[in-house]
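Pasting two entries for a bug report.
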Amino acid sequence: MNHKQAKRLLFSNPEVKKEYDNLAVAHEIKRKIIKLRLEQGLSQKELADRIGTKQSAISRLESGDYNPSVEFLSKIAHALGKEVHIEFH
């Protein structure tokens, strides 16, 4: 069984698909933060220093082991020269 087949099988379960979809936003946020940090040539420690936290907090966020508050995301955005916008569709 290849990846595509396994995914199709797993997603045939509505509960599994729902949980996967619920995680999509968190994964997208994580990807964008990592991309912006790397584009600016910052290490996790340098980003952490900019917002007054520890490198381990950035590591947990980027690994997906942490559910950040909007306030924390706002601090990261400002440290990267960006803004946070939340939309409901």
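Entry 2 (this is the one that rendered wrong in the viewer):
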Amino acid sequence: MTEARYQFGRVSSIRAIAVGQPGARRFSLQVEASNGSTAVVWIEKEQLFNLAVALKNLIAQVEEARRRGRRRSGRISDAAPGFNGSERLEFQAGRMAVGYDDGLALFMLAASDAEEPENALPRLSLAVDQGALDALADEAFSVCAAGRPLCPLCGAPLNANEKHICPKHNGHAVLGETRAT
């Protein structure tokens, strides 16, 4: 398991959540350890999307290795020592890392606090099985896609109460507006 200040061990739940209205949303991973301790890891939308991509790629790599016959099992504790079931951890993530522990047959996720130096230990590490991790990646993609619609020409987000002047039209057309001929 990755060395971290808070080691949740194998978690019972991990979810991707968006809070707020499209255009002003905040994103987080909500984690619950087997002993009831919880963590809210705030992340940027791009981080959430890139995490989902990395998780899908890692799962595919592990499945390919399994097909080639590499398979071992191991054991990990359900909760980290020192957690009494009422701990609540909340922070803004900076760096995140994912990996697979072949000996435990579990995926690992570590998140560092954005306000700490780059060489500091991750703030949180956890272990999760493949099914829960795959569901997290799918949920992250859905959460990211549920935002504002994009302009079909330039790809910029469209705000519901604002006119969009598309740069692809050199300012001559406003999306959502019809011009008299």
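Dev reply: Rendering is fixed now. As a check, the viewer should reflect this: The first strand starts at residue 6 and ends at 19.
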